[in-house]
Amino acid sequence: MTIRVLLADDQALLRSAFRVLVDSEPDMEVVGEACDGAEAVRLAKEHAPDVVLMDIRMPGTDGLAATRLISADPSLAQVRVVILTTFEVDDYVVQALRAGASGFLGKGSEPEELLNAIRVAAGGEALLSPAATKGLIARFLARGDDGDGPDPARSERLGTLTGREREVLVQVAGGHSNDEIAERLEVSPLTVKTHVNRAMAKLGARDRAQLVVIAYESGLVRPRME
């Protein structure tokens, strides 16, 4: 199947470069270009892309607001947003993950990293850019907007999970793939996938990135201060 990609960036030159790169792949195609967040939301509704490459800083409606609007629209539940940013780790990125983004990628990433991010996001496995350290991201996620600690609502929702689902969630928050989790827990990858899907359904998570946010904000997993 061809992965349908929407580009959202206020710099025309960058959009052109991304288009050439994406369209050069046999399993991808660019279905639209937006110069701001409002247009990105409109084109997402019009074209129903699999993945939106979203610049976080744009005039008018920025990438953060656009991500919230896309994630909150039930008709766009299949759309995955990957944030593109010059600064890979900042509060905007964390807010974008909370808003529903599947992950983020630095604009300085290699072409193959960008293409891989698109494929990973389309497959529902998106998390974070290869250049971002898990510990640093964890600190930002755990810090929260007000620094008040774990979210009681998130913590309460964890009570719906079985012991094994919680165990798998901890592994997901550690950035491990299904195959790695299966090896660690001595179960099959299919069993892990089943637990992940059930955890996502119970916690209302769109994808694995959202599971990671929930794991940290609920206090189930705490960051390692490295």
TrEMBL record:
Superkingdom classification of source: Bacteria
Residue ranges occupied by any HTH luxR-type domain in the UniProt entry: 154-219
4-aspartylphosphate: modified positions: D55
InterPro entries: CheY-like_superfamily (IPR011006), NreC/VraR/RcsB-like_REC (IPR058245), Sig_transdc_resp-reg_C-effctor (IPR016032), Sig_transdc_resp-reg_receiver (IPR001789), Tscrpt_reg_LuxR_C (IPR000792), WalR-like (IPR039420)
Domain Response regulatory: 4-122
Alphabetical UniProt keywords: DNA-binding, Phosphoprotein, Transcription, Transcription regulation
SMART domains tied to this protein: HTH_LUXR, REC
The protein's name in its UniProt record: Response regulator
Lineage: Bacteria, Bacillati, Actinomycetota, Actinomycetes, Kitasatosporales
